[in-house]
Design brief:
Elements lengths: L1 H13 L8 E6 L2 E8 L2 E5 L19 E5 L2 E4 L5 H8 L29 H15 L3 E2 L3 H8 L16 H4 L37 E7 L10 E3 L10 E4 L16 E4 L8 E3 L2 E3 L2
Parallel strand pairs: 4-8, 7-11
Antiparallel strand pairs: 1-2, 2-5, 3-4, 5-12, 6-12, 7-9, 9-10
Amino acid sequence: MKKLILPLFFALLTHNCVAQQDSVVVEVKGVRIVMIKVEGGTYQRGCNPKSESDTSCRKANRPQHTVSVNTFYIAKYEVTQRLYYEVTGKQPSWFKPTHFSDAAFDISFDGPVERVSWYDAVAFTDTLSKLTGRKFRLPTEAEWEYAARGGIYKENYRYAGGNELDNVAWYHHGRNARPEYYIWPREVGLKQPNALGLYDMTGNVGEWCSDWFDSKYYQTQAHFKNPKGPKDGEKKVYRDASSVYGLPWMMEVTARKGERPENGVNHIGFRLAMDAQ
């Protein structure tokens, strides 16, 4: 009987289980922000094409390479419309309840904020830092992918939290989708989390990272230690893809995209990060 215990334990741990994580909870004007501690480590970032016809492993996402990151904190949920409003007094989102009178849309102020530029997101982290005494920031691209992959638990999944997209993400099902699959962001935290207990790192909205975007950046070094991206550029990195425009290949944890930092669009929001003390 004893021989069965360890195999069963590890099977349960690796089957969509959330490991217990250290966390910091910060409350701002009645809204709780849960920051999950992500233990630093080394991982293989990016992807290698499985064949010449592999279209999901785009050139910007390869070659796969070794990356190391220090311990940091990242938010359990995307920044919501409610939190953004309480901190800034502004409600920029397109997909907000006051825009839609049809109850079938089921849009909530606890859905992710969107239509915020990269500059808006950085300004939000600065304001929030002053309000709380914490040093909030955007995650680096390397931190984002490491966290999406499950950190030290190294989930070998195509998406954050699993290989079945319906289980972990709200996403674009196409023009002929059933009503329950209509494309708009939903309340955060309704889908399956990854091993770190992070929600919606696949689907809902894309998320700004701190780095400048360069489609050839992965080809510049053999090893990256706490990389922060190129020194400059025209676009900023955003990771993941939204329920509005996201197709399955765009939602893989390796997929990289760029958008001009002054653009606030209805498919990009952000998630908070914080250095470990």
